[in-house]
Amino acid sequence: MNLIKVSVALAAYNGEKFIEEQLNSILSQLSLGDEVIVSDDNPGSEMSKLVLELSKKDPRIKYIKGPSKGVIANFENALSHVSGDVVFLSDQDDVWLPGKVSAVLAEIEKGASLVMHDAKVVDAELGTINESFFELHGSGTGLIKNIIRNTYIGCCMAFTRELLLECLPFPKDIPMHDQYIALMAEKKGLKISLIDKQYLLYRQHGNNVTGGKTTIMQKLNFRKNIIKAIAGCNSSAVQTSRIPVSAAIVTYNNAKYIEDAAKTLLDSVDYEKIDFRLFVFDNGSTDGTIDIINDSFVNTAEYGDKVKLIHSGGNIGFGVAHNKILEVMENEFPSKYHCVVNPDVIIRDDIVSTMVDYLEDEKNSDVVQLSPRICFPDGRSQILGKRNPHFIYLFASRMRGEEPGFLLSRYAMLNEDYSKPFEIWNATGCFMFFRSDAFKEVGGFDDRYFMYFEDCDITREMRKLGKVLFFPHAIVYHVWARDSKRNTKLKIIHITSMLKYYLKWRTI
């Protein structure tokens, strides 16, 4: 199987005694592009601190805050964040043995949708209790067999992403997540492969979640609930899966604004509906911007799984930096929609869902980009160009007075009905919302522009693929410092970019 990505969903709770040993045994078998999603059901514990420290050393470890609703909900939370082609389940206190991942992937390559291998049952100090979990429990496939007496065990299981999407969200009151996933594979007639070799040390100790005594009534209820869940087949699972949306912010000495921009954006998203990731690319800041991003987002339980910081080592420019993010996204988070965000904006409403809903509507399938309404922080609308930036319009914009004149009004298309979407030629770069496939098709931003005019340019490129609309139902609040009016260096960059734009598009 080529370029397969492996995700490990690990549900954790106060596991500081064993989890580092387990993570080391897992990571030793993963490739650089793989991931371990650790969902922590007791954030703030000693284990939380340990995992966060380990994640700083190895970015494949992705820490997320658990729902604190028990083991099934915790695994569901971890599974809802995975992005791999093949998903492994993991407990916090076992040890993976060499060859586990390669053996499982070999079975997946042969067409298996779910794979389970044998395990050696051990005590807390890894002393052998039983040589074979399979023999101890009579493990085997079969729908009825595993409803009557379940022999599937999650810590030895892996499955395809396609099977996972059939299973999420979990139905209410299932006895265990691993049994449900395996029985769904049985129900659908998918290929299940059992590997009769021990690839795990399965720890049994006083703090195990599973293995406790249950009453006859509990067992009967478990069987009733699993039959009900399987019979329902969770038919709404695919339709309710979250839509992947990425966002990108390029920073350069933005300590004054970046925390508000990132936090208001992250806090505005409806995570029940949107699978959201924010990529921050720093262009060599020296004013504390990087520390703010790390301390307030990357190294926190609340935002750590949603934010990735990328360092350039120097200022490579706005467009090039955003294109570098595009390369990272391709490997880590291939999204359906992508927004380019300035570090000096504030988001006050769930505009991401609003724009996603609009683009998800089939009648808007020819729209490739949305440009929201832009306001000053006090709520006043900003008058921004929406036609191609001919020189006469730019001159009028620089010479603007209290009220917009004829040229500026025409440039901003003020004669249009601003209460509903309409087609534009030029979208402001402070917040751009793209269909990711279209953004990739045009190759991202033209890297000839170090800064300025890249937004005008990409709008023209996007219009080759479909419509670009002004979208007033989403509002972004923008400081709009207009630094190039005061800074000579930025003014020179601005003029240089303008000339490059006019030469490229053969217009003035």
CATH architecture of the largest domain: Alpha-Beta Complex
Class derived from helix and strand content: alpha/beta
Tally the beta strands: 18
Give the number of domains. 2
Condensed summary:
This protein has 508 residues and is of the alpha/beta class.
Structure description:
- With 508 residues, this protein is an alpha/beta fold.
- The protein has two domains: 6-232, Spore Coat Polysaccharide Biosynthesis Protein SpsA, Chain A (Alpha-Beta Complex), CATH 3.90.550; 243-505, Alpha-Beta Complex (Spore Coat Polysaccharide Biosynthesis Protein SpsA, Chain A).
- The chain has helices at 19-27, 46-57, 71-79, 100-109, 133-137, 143-148, 161-167, 177-187, 216-232, 258-268, 289-298, 318-332, 351-360, 391-398, 406-411, 436-441, 454-462, 488-505, and strands at residues 6-12, 35-40, 61-65, 86-90, 95-96, 114-122, 128-130, 157-160, 192-203, 243-251, 274-282, 307-311, 337-341, 345-346, 367-375, 422-423, 431-435, 467-478.
- Helix 7 crosses helix 8.
- The chain is elongated, with a radius of gyration of 26 Å.
